[in-house]
Amino acid sequence: MAKMKRTVVVASAMVALTACAPAGYNGADPGVAEPVAVAAADSTSTPDPESSADPEASAEPGASASPGAEPEADAPLPDGAELTESLTGKKFPRMGSAVVNQDGFLLYRFDRDSNDPPATNCEDQCAEVWPPALTDGNPKLKGVSDDAVGTITRPDGTRQITLDGWPLYTYIGDKKPGQWKGQGVGGTWFVVNPDGSKNLECLPKGTPKAVEPPSKTKSDSSDSDYDY
C-alpha cells in the first residue's frame, strides 16, 4: 500500500461545512469478495434409488459435507459492536444520494481501502472512529443492488459489508441519524452512493479532521499517530 502524506490540520483550517452542513456541525470540534447471501440447497435433484433403499448408503467415507452442516462461524463481535442489519439507498436534501443502515446513520467509504481486491486498511484506532459495517451475511437491501453487495473478512475474523467492493463504515462523529459530519474528513472519507461510488456533493471547505479515538481520549495520550 502506497504511503500517503499525513494531513496536518491547524485550528484555522477546521472550517465548518458550507450550507450543506448537517444540523449541529461544528468545524472547530468535529466530533476476493464473498457473496452476501448463500444460495439455498437444490431441492429438485432426484435421489439415487439404491441409496433411498438403504439409509446408510449415503454415509460413505470421504463424502462431502451434508447440506445441513453448519458453516464456519464468524468471529465474535467486538465489545459494543452491532451488526448492520440493512442497507437502504435514499435521498437527502443538498447531499443527494446516500446509503444508511437500519438506524438511519449514513455509511462511508475510505480511499485508503481497496475494492479490487476488496480490502480494509482501517483497523485499531481507525476502526474506533469509523466502525466497520459488520454483517452476518444477510442484510436487508432497499434501493441498493444485491449484485453490488458483498463481504470481506477483516483481520479479526469478523465480516464487513462491501459495496462495489468498497468496505463500508459509520462515523462516531455523527451523533444522530441523517448527519454526515464525516464527509471529506482527512480528504479520504466520503459518503457512499448506492452504487458504491463516492458522493462528492456537499464537500466541506478545507480538510476536516476526524474526532479522537475513544481509547486515545481515555488514556489522554498525545503521541498517537492516528490521522484518518
UniProtKB/TrEMBL annotation:
Keywords: Signal. The keyword Acetylation does not apply. The keyword Signal applies. Residues 1-21 form the signal peptide. InterPro entries: Lipoprotein_repeat. It comes from the Bacteria. Residues 36-89, 197-228 are annotated as: Disordered. Residues 36-76 have a biased composition (Low complexity). This is Lipoprotein with Yx(FWY)xxD motif. It comes from Micromonospora fiedleri.
